[in-house]
Design brief:
By secondary structure, this protein is α/β, with parallel strands linked by helices. Helix content is 40%, strand content 19%.
């Protein structure tokens, strides 16, 4: 495999770690992800990761039930730390070194995030897992991944989801929905497609960070994306 990217930001949803359980962390899913990530690191790709926390707690959902929004978002940030530690443990199990970074001081659980420390870890062959989103309430982990991908000078944001790309409508609800192979940031905005929140999309556009959306739950897809095979959808 000859990679088309040198450094990538892999965005994973918290829900994906739950697999079919709907909540919590599925050990087999973590193991599958770890194996796929190690495969592309072995091929020479530097991998930085941001994980959501929706399998444990989602700030917006908490706010809808009366939780203070700032505290709810902080609870969501802690959920991303739990997921990051789970993935780090899975990477350890397959022999892939990794390092967890936190946007909020949380030593000894993780090292406080710094662009330079992350790049140093990547240059050492480690997978850098960046948790707590941006470290601020009212920002999603999508925005956190856009910010971290831009800061750490990644070539692309790989958004691993449970669908195989971006469609004209939700393919799980509309059987007539058609898939895009490529779509511009502007068209995503005009069509109000739910690729990621608008703050994240606009940040990627303004900083020329392409987004590649693909189905991470199919084992082998990450390698195919890295090799430049035509799967998923590229936002440019």
């Amino acid at each position: 495999m000859k990679p088309i990217y040198k450094r990538v930001l892999l965005k994973l949803s918290g829900e994906s770690l739950a697999a079919g359980q709907g909540h919590g962390i599925d050990p087999q899913r973590v193991a599958d992800y770890a194996t796929q990530i190690k495969e592309i690191v072995d091929a020479g790709v530097q991998v930085a990761i941001v994980i959501g926390g929706g399998n444990i707690f989602r700030g917006l959902a908490g706010a809808a039930k009366g939780v203070d929004r700032v505290k709810g978002d902080q609870m969501g940030m802690l959920a991303t730390v739990i997921n990051s530690l789970a993935l780090s443990s899975g990477l350890d199990a397959v022999g892939q070194p990794s390092q967890v970074f936190t946007a909020i001081s949380m030593v000894p659980i993780g090292e406080q995030y710094s662009k330079w420390r992350v790049i140093d870890a990547l240059n050492q062959g480690k997978v850098a897992i960046m948790s707590c989103g941006t470290g601020n309430p009212f920002f999603t982990t999508d925005t956190g991944s856009a910010l971290r991908g831009i800061e750490t000078e990644c070539d692309v944001m790989l958004k691993g989801t449970r669908v195989d790309g971006i469609y004209t409508a939700d393919p799980e609800k509309d059987p007539t929905a058609t898939k895009f192979d490529r779509i511009s940031y502007d068209e995503v905005y005009e069509r109000q497609l739910k690729v990621m929140d608008m703050t994240a999309t606009i940040m990627c556009k303004e900083n020329n960070l392409p987004i590649h959306v693909f189905n991470m739950d199919v084992v082998g897809n990450l390698r195919k994306v890295i090799a430049g095979e035509p799967i998923g959808t590229v936002v440019y």
